[in-house]
């Protein structure tokens, strides 16, 4: 059976996403996001499931940095999970002095903690489930976890449905080594990382290549190129599939301008169909290509 590495341990939100994206496969928990990616790069797992962005806290930087460096991986599927938390403690604890969780989770319950556990010190853990393990081990008094962790660990539920922002969501990717792309569906997302020269207008030029081909951007993040202060990589997600003419044409234009790493084209979890700019459909591109060929052949009408 194929192995899917996921950002664990058992009981993370990522485990739930992996169950949805890779049902029936063997799920292997990894302590960190880089470890999950490395398992795929070393051939120890076929694919990896990791979080990529949260609607409150934004990008999961370990995932972005891990995708920009080392051998390429591509996203073949995504899942979008609603995020509300359960606060767990040991049955023997009566005063909560420390509360641990993943930094993304702590940021999403900051107001709740101020109101309900004002005396408690928040401590960063490697994941929500790692915080639950640390509470079991007596390291901390409480953990902010995924609801499923209440079934995974022998802890007492202090609060449920905790979220400062209602309707918060996290998006997760299923990543594999480069290979055949999932078929286009009309509701796809393409992701790239682009490293431009540091000069006036370089980013604007990249964005114009997309805009002028009628491509709608869905995310733009910048991450520093480590060891080179002031230099950045840009992570771009946009609507459409590499198999579509406007996307292929835009990627070729970007490649001429800068260093581009393709991070995959896959169906969107929310099923939102791509808005295709006027004159940017596949048949518009095919007509234009035929016309150029006719000109070259001296056949222009
Ligand atoms: O720690 C977990 O449970 C995770 O799956 C990670 C993660 C994240 O990186 O954003 C996933 C969803 C929540 O937003 C909080 C934490």
Automatic annotation (TrEMBL):
Gene3D superfamilies (alphabetical): 3.30.70.260, Periplasmic binding protein-like II
EC number of the protein: 4.2.1.51
Domain ACT: 191-268
Marked site: Essential for prephenate dehydratase activity: 170
Coiled-coil ranges from the UniProt annotation: none
NCBIfam families xref list: PRK11898.1
Cellular component GO terms, alphabetical: cytoplasm
Cited InterPro entries: ACT-like_dom_sf, ACT_dom, Chor_mutase/pphenate_deHydtase, Preph_deHydtase, Preph_deHydtase_CS
Pathway membership, UniProt: Amino-acid biosynthesis; L-phenylalanine biosynthesis; phenylpyruvate from prephenate: step 1/1
Gene Ontology biological process: L-phenylalanine biosynthetic process
GO molecular function, one term: prephenate dehydratase activity
Highest taxon listed in the record's lineage: Bacteria
Keywords: Amino-acid biosynthesis, Aromatic amino acid biosynthesis, Lyase, Phenylalanine biosynthesis
Reactions catalysed according to its record: prephenate + H(+) = 3-phenylpyruvate + CO2 + H2O
Protein name, as recorded: Prephenate dehydratase
